[in-house]
Design a protein that fits this description.
This protein is of the alpha/beta class. The protein contains seven helices and ten strands. It has helices at residues 20-30, 58-69, 89-97, 110-128, 144-153, 186-202, 221-235, and strands at residues 7-15, 40-43, 72-75, 134-135, 158-159, 163-166, 171-175, 178-179, 208-213, 239-241. The strands form two sheets. Strands 1, 2, 3, 4, 8, 9 and 10 form a seven-stranded parallel β-sheet that branches. It has a three-stranded antiparallel β-sheet with strand order 5-6-7, with no helix packed on it. Helix 4 (110-128) packs across helix 5 and helix 6 runs parallel beside helix 7. The longest helix has 19 residues, at 110-128. The two termini are 23 Å apart. The model is unreliable at 89-99 (pLDDT under 50).
Length: 252
């Protein structure tokens, strides 16, 4: 059996009117070698409660235009901000160390998680005129309530740090760590640059590779340079792919 052609999935996180300029810059960087837009946008309906996306606004029109051009749209939480009181040492560790208070869906109960998912999907679907490709939790962090809500709410795809899966069945459809960057401290910047450099040098070309960027990356010149170099490197000998290719086939 022929080995599948390596494929690169690229996503822009935290898409919001609050970061419109940064999103534009990231879109330009990641799409330079794409014939057509072959990346995903993770849309936050109301980032931190002060940047609501409303139907009929210029930003909503831009979301529709991006989607019509071929960009895959994901629901990316609702507020992105984590306001939960976490129980258990592991949950507290994830909330404190794996994100700067932005793991919104880590501590939510099932009912709250499902309600925010449903509201986010309806908002985005009404704006772009089609169903979002899936749901990805802020900071890729899910609590038990969120995991159950994913399945109950019927999202076709979800993603965490290590995989993409279909919530309805639990089937993993892409494996491997996502390459990303962090800009909120000097040591995180240095670590991000080192990991990306190692990936460019040594990452085996897998069936599915993933790369994710955030608006904050555009504030650090070394990060934007690293992003551009990494996209170019990983796409050499691979093709740019869309998350929708991982959706269940119609009728299955």
């Amino acid at each position: 059996m022929a080995r599948p052609e390596p494929s690169l999935l690229v996503s822009i996180h935290d898409v919001s009117p609050k970061f419109e300029g940064a999103v534009d810059r990231l879109a330009d960087i990641v799409s330079r070698d794409m014939a057509t837009p072959a990346y995903a946008m993770l849309v936050v309906p109301d980032h931190w409660g002060d940047a609501p996306i409303r139907a009929g606004t210029p930003f909503a029109s831009r979301l529709r235009a991006w989607s019509d051009a071929g960009v895959d749209m994901f629901v990316h939480g609702w507020f992105h901000l984590d306001r939960s009181e976490h129980e258990g040492a592991m949950a507290r560790f994830k909330a404190k160390r794996m994100t700067a208070g932005e793991g919104e869906f880590l501590g939510l109960d099932h009912a709250t998680a499902r309600a925010r998912m449903a509201d986010g999907r309806k908002l985005i679907e009404d704006i772009i005129g089609r169903a979002p490709v899936g749901f990805i939790a802020p900071a890729w962090l899910y609590g038990e309530g969120a995991l159950q809500a994913l399945s109950d709410e019927g999202f076709a795809l979800a993603e965490d740090h290590m995989k993409v899966w279909r919530p309805a069945t639990g089937e993993v459809v892409a494996r491997g760590p996502v390459i990303t960057w962090a800009s909120r401290s000097r040591w995180r910047i240095a670590s991000s640059l080192a990991v990306a450099a190692a990936a460019r040098a040594a990452l085996p070309r897998k069936a599915w590779m993933r790369l994710a960027v955030h608006p904050g990356d555009t504030n650090i010149a070394s990060l934007t340079d690293s992003i551009a170099r990494t996209v170019a490197s990983l796409s050499h000998g691979a093709r740019f792919a869309r998350y929708r290719e991982l959706l269940p086939a119609v009728g299955t």
